[in-house]
């Protein structure tokens, strides 16, 4: 059987005598013999670099299309998502929710003794859950069964546009096409004392719960960490250069989350001028200096978390050896996810576009298909739902109200507060709303934004309707089970039907 290449011409075969999984360390999977540094080159149709959500999707897709495929992972499969991002954050969010539930238990007649949080036990629980998700999602045998050679021999580095060298063994792997799925890492600000900061990937390494915590950056990551540590008892100061928290969310979502933070006792400072420095004090605390409106502040914290952005993880990748261009801290790609070098593609956080798991999957499948069959697929990401597990939760899909009004001032917007929904009243979770945005003819849903209980699931349900091209009248006729949070969708659709066009 001949192998596929991007041009459809028979290409070089991989060494099939190698085990499908190789690793420099002796885990429970067999390892392949490693040739001397730079000696041998194993050839594949498609080499995928990075084994996070994007890399695994790209490798599986390429293998499904019949390409000989290698997946090079420098650390652990699962990437940021499983190991240090979504999964641990979600377990921490559940921990925070449990604390809040316990706090209100007495209102339901349940006596709970004075609560306390055992941080090491929380961390152990998070780590155990990461392992369980690892086992379910990133099973090397599953990849092998799908026809992917998983190579765990350290970080890969280009030595020329087709060949990558693996740091742990020096083995060289050649790809007729290469798909870069190397993800990102937290941005490091070049500040005096920056080494004193904690980063989202390292919050679990905090030795104890900080009594006083500063979170710099109120994007998705920072906002979720605010909720977690506030619920666990920390005094929290949130700082951001942007004028509002969650700066890319719908403005009403952003305002609602900020209001909730402030009611919970979080000090929120947006529109600051700059963060200046961190400095270790004699008592072990960290002095953080920042300014706002020209006034300088300096305050002591037990920990300072920096969540100020997520550039692509390009250090040591040798992009210069391949001639691959970088723009704004990410690998530049065209609409077909092709880099400046035509046989190299980039998907997921590495290209700096959407930076969500669902986007990583979609981009990776398109990039791998393009790598194998030719570059024609695109991922316009018109419908990319996302959300975060703060207190309250928030979510959105499609255009924000400001974006929709900028395109058509006569678009229709309705907002249904959770105070109107029986389920929210029953659960005592009336903080929140669903905003639905439709075109003036009510043919197309343009956006949905929610704050409150089950916000992410509600927005996901609206996304399904949007993806199916459901018009407002049809949505208004859908029956929703009683009593559910998603019933707010039907109520919003009915209000859209009654809304007057300006
Ligand atoms: C705290 C936090 C919470 C998040 N929560 C959510 C969420 O709830 N929902 C959501 O959709 N998104 C969330 N995200 C974003 C999500 O984690 C990323 O969008 C997603 O992981 C991107 O997948 P990826 O495969 O592109 O990159 P990654 O998951 O970062 O994977 C990249 C992989 O490449 C490997 N690698 C890097 N360089 C090399 C190299 N040179 N050689 C070999 N291997 C290499 C890395 O070891 C890593 O395994 C969160 C992010 C953070 C930081
Ligand atoms: N639940 C989710 O879906 C989820 C959760 C976490 C992260 N993510 C994704 O991961 C990526 C990274 O998220 P993130 O929150 O780390 O980054 P981000 O870029 O989304 O937010 C960074 C925040 O830091 C602020 N900032 C930047 N420089 C600053 C400075 N010098 N001082 C003070 N504030 C500064 C920005 O204004 C912004 O609000 C994003 O694309 C995000 O969507 C998604």
Automatic annotation (TrEMBL):
Residue limits of the FAD/NAD(P)-binding domain? 44-364
- Keyword Oxidoreductase listed? The answer is yes
- Pfam family name, one: Pyr_redox_dim
What is the UniProt remark on how the cofactor binds and its stoichiometry? Binds 1 FAD per subunit.
- Identify a single GO molecular function assigned to this protein: NAD(P)H dehydrogenase (quinone) activity
Give me the residues that bind FAD, please. Answer: 349
- Region Disordered: list its residue ranges: 1-40
Look up the record and name the cofactor or cofactors this protein needs. Answer: FAD
Binding positions for NAD(+) per the UniProt entry? 309
Which residue pairs form cystines in this protein? Answer: 81-86
Q: Which PROSITE patterns match?
A: PYRIDINE_REDOX_1 (PS00076)
Q: Which residues form the Pyridine nucleotide-disulphide oxidoreductase dimerisation domain?
A: 385-492
Bias regions of kind Pro residues — which residues?
Answer: 24-33
Keywords (alphabetical) are:
Disulfide bond, FAD, Flavoprotein, NAD, NADP, Nucleotide-binding, Oxidoreductase, Redox-active center
Q: Its family?
A: Belongs to the class-I pyridine nucleotide-disulfide oxidoreductase family.
Instruction: Supply the name of the protein.
Output: Pyridine nucleotide-disulphide oxidoreductase dimerisation region
Tell me which species this is from: Kineococcus radiotolerans (strain ATCC BAA-149 / DSM 14245 / SRS30216)
């Amino acid at each position: 059987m001949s192998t596929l290449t991007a041009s459809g011409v028979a290409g070089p075969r991989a060494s099939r005598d190698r085990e499908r999984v190789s690793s420099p360390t002796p885990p429970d999977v067999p390892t392949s013999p490693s040739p001397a540094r730079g000696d041998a080159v194993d050839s594949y149709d498609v080499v995928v670099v990075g084994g996070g959500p994007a890399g695994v999707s790209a490798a599986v897709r390429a293998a499904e299309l019949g390409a000989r495929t290698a997946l090079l992972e420098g650390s652990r499969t699962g990437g940021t998502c499983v190991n240090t991002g979504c999964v641990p954050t979600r377990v921490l969010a559940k921990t925070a929710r449990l604390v809040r539930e316990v706090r209100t238990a007495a209102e339901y007649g349940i006596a709970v003794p004075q609560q306390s949080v055992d941080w090491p036990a929380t961390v152990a629980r998070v780590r155990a859950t990461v392992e369980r998700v690892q086992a379910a999602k990133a099973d090397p045998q599953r990849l092998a069964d799908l026809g992917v050679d998983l190579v765990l021999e350290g970080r890969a580095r280009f030595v020329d546009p087709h060949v990558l060298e693996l740091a742990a063994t020096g083995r060289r792997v050649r790809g007729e096409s290469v798909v870069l799925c190397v993800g990102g890492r937290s941005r490091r600000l070049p500040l005096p004392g920056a080494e004193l900061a904690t980063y989202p990937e390292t919050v679990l390494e905090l030795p104890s719960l900080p009594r006083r915590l500063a979170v710099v950056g109120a994007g998705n990551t920072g906002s979720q960490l605010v909720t977690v540590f506030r619920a666990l008892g920390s005094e929290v100061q949130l700082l951001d250069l942007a004028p509002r928290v969650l700066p890319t969310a719908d403005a009403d979502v952003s305002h609602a989350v900020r209001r909730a933070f402030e009611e919970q006792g979080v000090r929120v400072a947006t529109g600051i001028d700059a963060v200046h420095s961190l400095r270790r004090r004699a008592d072990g605390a960290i002095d953080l200096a920042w300014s706002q409106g020209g006034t300088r502040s300096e305050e002591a914290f037990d920990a300072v978390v920096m969540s100020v952005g997520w550039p692509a993880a390009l250090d040591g990748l040798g992009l210069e050896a391949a001639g691959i261009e970088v723009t704004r801290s990410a690998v530049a790609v065209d609409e077909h996810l092709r880099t400046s070098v035509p046989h190299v593609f980039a998907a997921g956080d590495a290209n700096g576009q959407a930076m969500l798991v669902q986007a990583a999957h979609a981009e990776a499948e398109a990039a791998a298909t393009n790598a194998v069959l030719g570059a024609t697929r695109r991922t316009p990401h018109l419908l990319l739902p996302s959300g975060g597990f703060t207190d309250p939760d928030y979510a959105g899909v499609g255009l924000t109200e400001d974006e929709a009004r900028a395109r058509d001032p006569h678009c229709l917007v309705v907002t249904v507060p959770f105070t109107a929904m029986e389920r929210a009243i029953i659960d005592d979770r009336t903080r929140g709303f669903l905003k639905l945005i439709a075109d003036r003819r009510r043919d197309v849903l343009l956006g949905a934004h929610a704050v409150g209980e089950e916000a992410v699931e509600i927005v996901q349900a609206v996304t399904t309707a949007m993806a199916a091209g459901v018009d407002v009248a049809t949505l208004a006729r859908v029956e929703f089970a009683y009593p559910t949070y998603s019933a707010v969708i039907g109520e919003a659709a009915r209000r859209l039907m009654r809304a007057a066009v300006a």
